[in-house]
Write a structure and sequence with these properties.
Elements: E1 2-7, E2 10-13, E3 18-26, E4 33-39, E5 46-52, E6 58-60, E7 68-73, E8 78-83, E9 92-98, E10 115-116, E11 120-125
Length: about 130
């Protein structure tokens, strides 16, 4: 019912920046919250940022607070992740995510997610 398409991944040096984009297609009216998860080899998928589509409420994982900023353009059904001060430990596959609007809360766990994007690779070199 909903497809999520990410872009903006790439390779940067430590301390650099990247901006990820995710656009939702389909039954976007059902989405309450959109966000970003990441998964590195040997690690669990972790929620790093999310935003409530109906306002300014946001969530950030502890590992990215102060460095990453999530924003959105609801008219374009698009969410962005501005990543600054990147570290090698930020290297991972980054996945866009969306819920179904079943409750008025932010995505923080994989269990909250109904739709996943295909992922975009972020690599940070030291």
């Amino acid at each position: 019912q909903v497809q999520l398409v990410e872009s903006g991944g790439g390779s940067v040096q430590a301390g650099g920046s990247l901006r990820l984009s995710c656009t939702a297609f389909g039954y976007t009216y059902s989405i309450n919250s959109m966000g970003w998860f990441r998964q590195a080899p040997g690690k669990e998928r972790e929620g790093i940022a999310s935003i409530y589509r109906g306002g300014l409420r946001t969530f950030y994982g502890d590992s990215v607070k102060g460095r990453f900023t999530i924003s959105q353009d609801n008219a374009k059904d698009t969410v962005y992740l501005q990543m600054n001060s990147l570290k090698p430990e930020d290297t991972a596959m980054y996945y866009c995510a969306a819920d179904s609007g079943g409750k008025l809360s932010l995505i923080t766990r994989s269990e909250d997610v109904r739709y996943w994007g295909q992922g975009t690779q972020v690599t940070v070199s030291s």
